Amino acid sequence: MRGYAGTSISTLVKETGLPKRAFYHHFESKAGLLAAVMAQGARGFFAAMREAHRDPPAGGTPRERLGCYLQRTGEVFAHREEFLRLLLVLVMSNEAREAREAMAWPGSTALSTRSSRRTASRSRRSWISSPTPWWRSARR
Question: Most CB within 10 Å of its CB: which of 2, 90, 115, 135?
Fold first, then answer.
């Protein structure tokens, strides 16, 4: 394994079979690709969290409702392991410093192509619109 810093755009192009021009058409840099991957992962993660907590338990003790909430959250975490692992690596390491800059919202320079800007815009909305906790919807 080479990691983020050890993988060049040439290697990415060779491994995926995409022409280099196609890569640069969609992503300005390797950091732009990583930012798009993380944006997609975040959208999927938060959508799964919203779905998992859509129908909160109506009855039961607070302890039972909390147990249900934690169980559902754990299931989402277990099914989104790759995204969470990548997120943790990016947060904890210095290896992907340029990727962090690409993921800085808004106005990232690595997300300057049209399709990447659309992805970033949708992602910002996803990061902002977190799931409604079960205890808020249960009171209504």
Answer: 90
Alpha-carbon distance of 55 to 52, in angstroms, equals 8
Type of residue found at 8 = S
Q: Report the C-alpha gap between 35 and 103 in whole angstroms.
A: 5
Contact 41, 86 (CB under 8 A): yes
Q: What ranges do the domains of the chain cover?
A: 37-103
d(CA 33, CA 97): 14
Residue 129: alpha-carbon gap to chain centroid: 13
User: Per-residue pLDDT for the chain (140 aa), expressed as one digit of tens each?
Assistant: 677 788 899 999 999 898 999 999 888 888 888 889 999 999 999 999 999 988 888 888 889 989 999 999 999 999 999 999 988 888 887 666 666 665 665 444 434 444 444 554 444 444 444 444 444 444 43
